[in-house]
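## retry 2 of 3
previous attempt timed out at serialization; input unchanged, resubmitting
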Amino acid sequence: MYRQIKNNKVKVALFLSVDVIIILLSLLGSLLLRFDFVIPPNFIGEYAYLLPIIIGVKLTVFAFYRLYKGMFRFTSLWDITNIMTANAIASVAIILGFGFFHGFAGFPRSLFLIDFVLSTLGISLSRVSVRIYFSHIVHNSKQDRFYSGGSAKKTRLVLIGAGRTGEKIAREILTTPHIGYELQGFLDDDNRKKGATLHGVKVFGQVSDANGLPFEFDEFLITAPSATGPEMRRIVEQCKAVNRPYKTVPDLSEIIDDNVSLKMIRDVSYVDLLGREEIQLDSRSITDFMRGKRVLVTGAGGSIGSELVRQCFQFNPAMVILFDNSEYNLFQIQQELSTTDHKPYTSCVLGSVRDKNTIDNMLRDYKPHVILHAAAYKHVPLQEDHPWEAINTNVLGTKNLIDCAVEHKVEKFVLVSTDKAVHPVNVMGATKRLAEIMVQVANRMGETSFMAVRFGNVLGSSGSVIPIFEKQIKAGGPVKITHPDMIRYFMSIPEAAQLILQASSMLQGRGKIYVLDMGRPVKIKDMAFDLIRLSGLEPEKDIPIVYTGVRPGEKLYEELAFDGEIFSKTKHGKIMILNNGGSNYDDWKHLSTDLNSLGELGNTFDAARIKQSLMRIIPEYKPTDSSILERPKIPEDHTFTA
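## retry succeeded, writing output
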């Protein structure tokens, strides 16, 4: 500690001395420039007493602007701006003092302007030279010593994308000792960048020029997080053609704080090939909605719930309460959050939405302002076999939360719903449709604002088809697809969580159902083929394909709205609102009676009677043996729009 303090004092003393010299040289230079290098003999003697005053004023202002607290080896544009500001303030103070106490008669005022320019340039140059020394001399010598033994070989990288992300990655490679990477060059499809340099590293051309690079390299790193799906597919195909491995950095929706680094490098995934455009969030409205509030997330250990928790952190809530019935999932997210900096106060509550006493006690203790209800059973075939479980969790669990939210005067209740609630043919979809109806009816009582957010499948969630396909590919096949024409809407987990928060912040949706723009539907068969090709194999050649038939409760495709439901746009282009998505129930009391009867029926474990009761409550629920609705097939180029 003493040695560190001593070293800091030496550093400050050194830069103070350097600054004094620069100030003196700047004053001398301004005199020489002003008088054409012939300074009047009497001028220096007459104004020599000003030197210590000028030096004192400047050093005082520099200290106030913390010019001696920085780490000069990491001097940035912000530091240069700070130096310019400090010099400007010091110059203004000197001019005002000189004019007040002495006056400008016989004194050239241009001296102050010239001195400001020279002083700013000199001090900035002194800081930048330190950075250059450490980044290009000390760093390179350390790297040479580290790798001279040949025991640790650097991975020679070519970055695809010479934009903002590529610049950050390049800077990290060039300035971090022992990083294990050597940057060879850039490729970028912007032809204007060809031949340009970034941090001294050349852009050698477009991605199509990868096969003719004039040097050896080991790996591609795709630093284009905003690339569209077709662009990403083309880049991947080019990397395969060159026969080099390739990795990428996260999609922009995955980078919460917009700070990408080499630690985030990962393999290219199907989410990258899906290539949905970057979401432009209205962060101010979400921050205004969440700032200083206590937010309860149910199902907080699940795929959507845990991402909602992560996304909440950047919008300054006072507290986030994590509620889940899985001890393991809750422990996992708790451990993850324990390593996160700058997070709000969090509390984990182990319990089930099926236990109303637990919910009531939790709301009494924490008094949340907002409830994000993501807890639900969602696996279609399992819920077909165990409909009583879907009733107890998806229906009665939601009812418990609604009752307690009204009693404890929660400000807003947001239900996370699904496209399977539209024209439901399975128990899971029927129970989620019933949950939507409950939210709409509950909005007519009490002070709580209720709403629902409906969207399709998310990539990478628990039970998602992607990890199943990846496991089958790793085992050498076969890859099992239910039906060659099976179509689904997909979005990434971060994208879904961000849009849920965006919809939650909107004011015009009390009692409404919001629907997220899911873009173009994707064939499950095409998804499987893409995943096989990502593994460097060919479908139906290296990996066999087996069609197993549609499972109980499955449709060939999903929809995002009922027939006749009308969408209207919101201020966010990817969020629509249903204007006529009402229900047949007029009041909560009537609905509660039917819900309680349904719950009692669930205790009989009679699947047929439970489904019949659901059909009576929800006329749109049409279970069939094949569970496929004979509706017109959606064209492959169909895109969901308002």
